[in-house]
Amino acid sequence: MDWICSSHIARICTRLMIGLCSVLAPCLYAEEPSRWPLFRGNSAGTGVATAALPKNLELLWSFRTDDAFFAATAVIARGIIFIGDAEAKFYAIDLKTGKEIWSREVELGFLGSAAVQDGRVVVGDSDGVIHCMDAKNGDTIWEQRTDAEINSSPNFFQQSVLIGSQNGTLYRLNLADGKILWQYTIEASGGIQCAPTLEGKHTFICGCDGQLHVIDVVTGTPLETIEIGNPTLSTPAVYGADVYFGTEGAKLFGVDWQKKKILWTYQNPRRKISYRSSPAVTTDAVVIGGRNQLVEKIDRRTGTSRWSFRTKGRVDSSPVIAGNRVFVGSTDGRLYGLDLESGDLVWSYDSGGAFTASPAVADGRLVIGNDDGVLYCFGKKEA
Q1: What is the pTM of this model?
Q2: Quick check: 236 and 212 in contact, CB under 8 A?
Q3: Hey, which residues does 367 pair with through a beta bridge?
Q4: Has residue 14 been placed in a domain?
């Protein structure tokens, strides 16, 4: 009897905590306004900036590579931008001036974003090597090899790194020395291209096997697998007990991971083309870009469309919500600023080169690179 009562109380407490996490999610997942240390800004992958951006964004500087392009999203910490190009180089760039601080070359380039913690920069390259570098000078601290290309972006759990590989394996590595703590492999060609996201001691990945995987981040033990029907490259955004992501089957999913229940699916009724963008999530909204050229806002609770905005190219870039605006790039060469409530266009910048990378927002600045090999920084010019 005592056990039954204790178990019942534990379940009630768990539900209350999950409910509280849902209410407080923006605060729990928020990073400092001066940082954008991960692909989607925070460990839950919500794509919501805590830094305010000026009403009228101006181009402050641009940084151009030599015969390369940017597919990766920048990360920002301590006033430094960290980003790799798709050919061979990784850069540290001063956020204020756009000047190169250091760079280093590898055999092949970088398609996934880096991540920064405790003065260390971690990133995987197209040759299957996970690099951990000193943020001050780019010196190698450790390397760990996988046997396939890495498109996944890292995340951190305490003093460890989570990152996926095209070999179908999610790795948890010791941040100090790169030693493998555990590895979890899915049975699928094409592997894991999303970034792993976190909620407490749970990590979430979607792979080419058409399933959402919920894994105990401490032990590497699979807790749940939820059938989603199609492979995906979209990084799951976690909001309390719910997870949101798009698939190659042209569907956006809302899933209650604890109940192993699909809450809703959304598919544009007229333009059914796959999602490779990762969603941004707030209390009320899920915003995502599609290969159907649309940016769409979906009601988080019901899965119904609130608005859609049509660009002139694919939207593989993942939107970022900053205040009451949504910022996202398109392969039409434009970076768009949309009103979060109405979907109206409030700002845009034509770069001439396609955007597949996503914005990074920190210290009142927005940073994004394009396939012309140009990294742009927008903000407010000093008087």
Answers
A1: 0.91
A2: yes
A3: 360, 377
A4: no
